[in-house]
Amino acid sequence: MDPGERRARWVRASNDITGSLLSGNDPKASLRLVAERARQLAEAPVAAIALPDEDRPGNLVFDVVDGVGIGADRISGLSVPISETGSGHVFVTGKAAIFRQYGNHVLARADDPSVRFPPQVADLDSSVAVPLAAASDVLGVLVLVRFRGDPLFTEGDLELAETFAAHAAVALVFARAAEVRRRLAVLEDRDRIARGLHDLVIQRLFAVGLGLDGLRNKLDPEHAETIGGFVAQLDETIHEVRRTIFSLHEEESGLRTALVETTREATVPLGFEPHLRLDGPLDSLVPDDVRADLLAALRDTLSDIACGGQANAVDVAVRVEPDGSMLELRVTDDDGADLRWRTRLRTGDSP
Questions:
Q1: Cα–Cα distance, 262 to 294 (Å, whole number)
Q2: Residue 67 in contact with residue 39, Cβ under 8 Å?
Q3: Beta-ladder partners of 61
């Protein structure tokens, strides 16, 4: 195929991917489309996208695998160390690379005896790995692989795949930004509703309650008792509205938001944004005094890692047990740091 036509095909595919991502499609489906189109354009039997592994800090997981005749479903979910693999090197450095004997590397990392790869995996040979990078932010790695005996990937192939991946990454960033804007719009609506409930509804209910209470003094005992019941119901309604207002603000000003903000504050001193994972009903089960200790521990740990200046990736995981019995903070980096901060929570009347 003429080089100009090949480049034009990659450009058209980039435009298609951008349109898909910005149309609000499911992120997983969009990533699968990226892998599928890249595989077809590169005339490769296998394409995969490796992303940071949330369950195993310091690893990449092959989150999306698109392939023919190699048991793609078996490779999907394979987790590999960032520090010991070609894909990890591309992820850390942000620089694309060409590798050989890719299938052998995959089999060498298949340490799970329950995973049985088909024989064709050993025949995977020439591969390119390109970063899904927007500016200095590397979101993941796109890997394209050919079988032994197929034409080897060239620097020209690498350049086309790298440009395609860069366009896809920018579209992913814009799609995530659009999701953040939608979330902010929801929070603004909640704030507007909360203000309306407080400034209008509660004031009117309170005024009606005062009027009924004043009227009760002018009535006979039987009717006064009935009016008293209505006043009590209004008081309870006011309390319910106030609880609703509190719940509307809870997501905006809760512990989850504070943890996100604290983590993002470390982006500048670290030189990159830490990866944050939150698990459990943190806003509802963690008391205020423990929140302060948790945020202080997180802030101090991230500061210590930044002062060390050796880490290129940091994972932060915060989990509260569903029964409210235990809260745990774990901060790990790719330089060997592993801090675990745990505290037992008060659980009301539970033993």
A1: 11
A2: yes
A3: 51, 79
